[in-house]
Amino acid sequence: MRLVPALVRGSVFAGALAFTAISATTAHAEEFPVPVITGVAPASGPAAGGNIIVVTGDGLAGVWFASVGNVGATIIGNTNTELKLIVPAHAPGLGDISATTIGGTTANTPADDYLFIGDGPTPTPEPTATPEPTATPEPTATPEPTATPEPTATPEPTATPEPTATPEPTATPEPTATPEPTATPEPTATPEPTATPEPTPTPEPTPTPEPTPTPTPTPTPTATPKPILPPIVGSLAPNFGLSYIGGPTIVSGARFTRVTSVKFGTASAKFTTLSSTRLLVIAPPLRRGTYKVTVTTRDGGVSTPLKSSTYTYFGL
């Protein structure tokens, strides 16, 4: 039971790793032939990476390292005939897919070609709705001008009376004196007509005020909480060891940042983080059987057990 801590120190650790690899190779050489790639779907994707592809072929069950365009890819699942990868970021162009097992590395053929395509255009945001303008008030009605009064009628002049007829003289010895005729009265002066008043000037219409533009309110963006993405355990290489001894193994997957624990079933294992996609784990000494391997991160994410994320102990 005290042999396991010694495996992680100095040359003893290196010897244990070599012993486990040699023992696994000798005992299971027929399980790890040189892998072969016969196809990939889809055969193209964005240069930014992050998409999942399925590589088909033979001898892919023990793949512990894979690359696309000479850039390491994340293994999220594999069987003897299929290998699921998360494509890494790469410059636009053609790249080869390779897979490595204990038996060797796949040969470069046209069947493993993958095309990286440049990113597409950014979607155009919808335009902000234009507010309707304020209704224009109706102009003030123009008052009608004051009616011009008609001029006063000019009175007609008084008629001049006719002169009194001169009476004939009476036949008397002395004639009667003839009276002087009555003086004709002067006609009444015609009054001047009343001056016509000037019409009241029409007031100018009140100018219509321009509508005040309504300011468009600026929307306040709401902070969207980021979802917790759990880690992914894709494969273990090797994925077997001796019962009650265990040994070192490489765990491949994704999101191995701030890992807090690695468990084989319910037993905790010692580990070292090599990168965000690889862990060096010392399998704990357990009895014979197959155990699910899970990884937990500080954010609370726990990997989902997959068929390819198991470790088998064999022996007594």
Question: Briefly, what is this?
Answer:
The protein is mainly beta and 316 residues long.
The overall strand count is 18
Biggest sheet statistics: 8 strands, mixed
- Work out the helicity level: under 10%
Strand content: 25-35%
Identify the quaternary structure here: single chain
The best one-word shape is elongated
Mean pLDDT reading: 74
> Any idea what the radius of gyration is?
57 Å
Which parts are unreliable, with pLDDT below 50 for 5 consecutive residues or more?
1-29, 120-131, 133-137, 139-143, 145-149, 151-155, 157-161, 163-167, 169-173, 175-179
Strand order of the largest sheet: 11-13-16-15-14-17-18-12
Order of helices and strands: HHEEEEEEEEEEEEEEEEEE
SS field, number of helical segments: 2
Determine the structural class based on helices, strands and strand pairing: mainly beta
- Distance from N terminus to C terminus (CA atoms, Å) equals 15 Å
What would you say this structure looks like, in words?
By secondary structure, this protein is mainly β. It is 7% helix and 31% strand. The protein has 2 helices and 18 strands. The strands form 3 sheets. An 8-stranded mixed sheet has the order 11-13-16-15-14-17-18-12, covered by helices on one side. Strands 2, 4, 5, 8, 9 and 10 form a 6-stranded mixed sheet that branches. A hairpin with a 3-residue loop joins strand 6 and strand 7 (82-86). The longest helix is centred in the N-terminal third of the chain and has 18 residues, at 10-27. It starts with a helix and ends with a strand. The N terminus is likely disordered.
